[in-house]
């Protein structure tokens, strides 16, 4: 059974619709204890990092997710859920869950460091293609490299260990699109909004023994 973390900051309905279309058994809950016996978790999210962390603390999902990751149970982060699994975000200057080492930075901050002034709109919104890196990931099985996925974000994952980046795209800088370490895999894009290729990722996750 798939557990969906509902902490008042998630793109919940689209995830539910995608899982339903795949015939997956899932449980959506605002109560961490309801999800204790799930086989795998999906940790979605949209919005602002500081608000999301506030909600995680209020619901108790912050400690629950840390315990889940420590137990090496499969966890999939999506969009904001792919960012706040790291240590710190520039968005609201907030400390995050710290499940993986790294920070989250605004596009403008990265472009400034790289002395670039790309004429690109922020947020990065729309379809972009992926390049597989560091061997890719089993959750991309059946999906050709350079397939397009749907992105909506203004902040960029900056993992301390670049070897955990399994797919990337370009938007004026390298954008980690998929990161994976141990039982944690996270996607900056929205698999549930990315058509056939995105549904294949979710199907691979549902059917896999582990991340």
Features:
single chain, 211 residues, alpha/beta, eight-stranded mixed sheet, four-stranded mixed sheet, 6 helices, 26% helix
What do you see in this structure?
The protein is an alpha/beta fold and 211 residues long. It has six helices and 14 strands. The protein has helices spanning 12-21, 49-59, 61-70, 80-83, 107-113, 195-207, and strands at 2-5, 26-29, 40-43, 75-78, 88-89, 94-95, 102-106, 124-129, 131-132, 148-153, 155-159, 165-170, 174-181, 184-187. The protein has an eight-stranded mixed β-sheet with strand order 2-1-3-4-14-13-12-9, sandwiched between helices. The chain is globular, with a radius of gyration of 16 Å.
- SSE string, helix = H, strand = E? EHEEHHEHEEEHEEEEEEEH
Largest sheet: 8 strands, mixed
Radius of gyration based on Cα positions: 16 Å
What is the topology, as strand order, of the major beta sheet?
Answer: 2-1-3-4-14-13-12-9
Beta-strand percentage range: 25-35%
**Number of beta strands:** 14
Number of helices: 6
Low-confidence stretches: none
Shape: globular
Give the CA-CA distance, first to last residue: 14 Å
Helical content class: 25-40%
Taking all residues together, what is the mean pLDDT?
96
Structural class comes to: alpha/beta
């Amino acid at each position: 059974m798939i557990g969906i973390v509902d902490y008042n900051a998630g793109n919940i309905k689209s995830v539910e619709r995608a899982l339903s279309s795949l015939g997956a058994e899932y449980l959506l809950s605002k109560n961490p204890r309801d999800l204790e016996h799930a086989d795998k978790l999906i940790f979605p999210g949209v919005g602002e990092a500081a608000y999301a962390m506030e909600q995680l603390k209020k619901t108790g999902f912050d400690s629950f997710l840390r315990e889940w990751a420590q137990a090496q149970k499969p966890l999939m982060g999506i969009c904001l859920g792919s960012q706040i699994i790291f240590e710190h975000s520039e968005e609201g200057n907030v400390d995050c869950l710290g499940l993986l080492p790294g920070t989250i930075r605004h596009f403008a901050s990265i472009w400034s460091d790289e002395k670039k002034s790309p004429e690109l709109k922020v947020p990065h919104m729309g379809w972009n293609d992926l390049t597989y890196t560091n061997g890719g990931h089993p959750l991309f099985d059946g999906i050709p490299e350079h397939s397009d996925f749907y992105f909506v974000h203004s902040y960029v994952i900056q993992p301390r260990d670049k070897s955990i980046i399994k797919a990337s795209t370009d938007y004026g800088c390298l954008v980690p699109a998929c990161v994976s370490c141990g039982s944690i895999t996270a996607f900056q894009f929205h698999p549930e909004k990315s058509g056939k290729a995105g549904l294949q990722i979710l199907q691979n996750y549902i059917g896999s023994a582990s991340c």
